[in-house]
Amino acid sequence: MSSELVDALTMLEKEKGISRELLVEAIEAALVSAYRRNFNQAQNVRTDLNLANGTIRVFARKDVVEEVFDSRLEISLEDAKKINPSYEIGDVVEIEVTPKDFGRIAAQTAKQVVTQRVREAERGIIYNEFIDREDDIMTGIVQRKDARFTYVSLGKAEALLPPGEQSPNEAYNPHDRIKVYITKVEKTTKGPQIFVSRTHPGLLKRLFELEVPEIYDGTVEIRSVAREAGDRSKISVYTDRPDVDPVGACVGPKGARVQAIVNELHGEKIDIVKWSDDPVEFVANALSPSKVLDVIVDEKNKATTVIVPDYQLSLAIGKRGQNARLAAKLTGWKIDIKSETDARETGIYPRPETFEGEMPAETEETLDPVLNKETAEFLAAEEETGLHAKEEKVPEFDEKDDEIE
Q: Where is the composition biased (Basic and acidic residues) (predicted)?
């Protein structure tokens, strides 16, 4: 064994951070397997790699016994005492059995072990790098796709984008640059396996953190996110500074900040509402762009009954119940929406303590321009078809908050 191995081990320790002692142990273990495979597979042996002179020796380990039944594993007491008079029954004797041509086999084995350990070390480095990026976003390049995944290059590693994490309004083609949210990093024998998403609520949260300086520096805080990827999302924001408008900060000058995020998500509509620890105010805000007359709170069941003007009922519920469903997710409260007429008939509105006039939801500056247009078209279509908001039964929505870490 030449001194080149010693130099290689020293270099790997410095450049890859692989302990030389661990490499030596791995090489010695591999040499034992190589010896058994090529010379005597039943023999109990150990190998000794001497880094000082680059030599490798093989020793057979034999138990000292009175009567020998297997000479490969045992040695008689008489023969053991010829080696060293101090040996007794039950001791272990080591006898050098290094083959003459073992050096060639040892060199090949050492090279294979070093190569394997280098790969493992590189995989470990990549794993440690990406495990720290869980719940974060990265920009990647679409490589290819098959029936199981779309594969996205993240530089040092390739990520897997499952079909269930792909936005329904997006198509992913080779060489496309996309931002992805890292949901999970797993350690496997073939290296780290990285799973990413384009639908996770965390992606929307991280995009706002990147786009809005006030969120990045902590002036404005995102309290909750509700998302139906590719269609519509709601986020609630808060600040304890009276001189800062949290909604306006997220919208940006002429809607530039929120529009940049809408573009990144290929037209997904985004409602930005002001968070409040008062469920009356928060639920009313969350139902934006609908106006709200009153919110009746049931603290025990964490449920609310929301009264809206008759002409706003369809808007409050939303297409296929989407607006109410997202509001329930955003606030964590059950939401039962009733028209003003229905509420008056059942005697729950007005209440003596109810404020006068309508409770305004968030103003139009909180909405993406695309959403404003949709709202206008919705109301125009409703008027044209002669639909009326009054309905006998309105579904109750009960959704938990989306998890955002």
A: 385-397
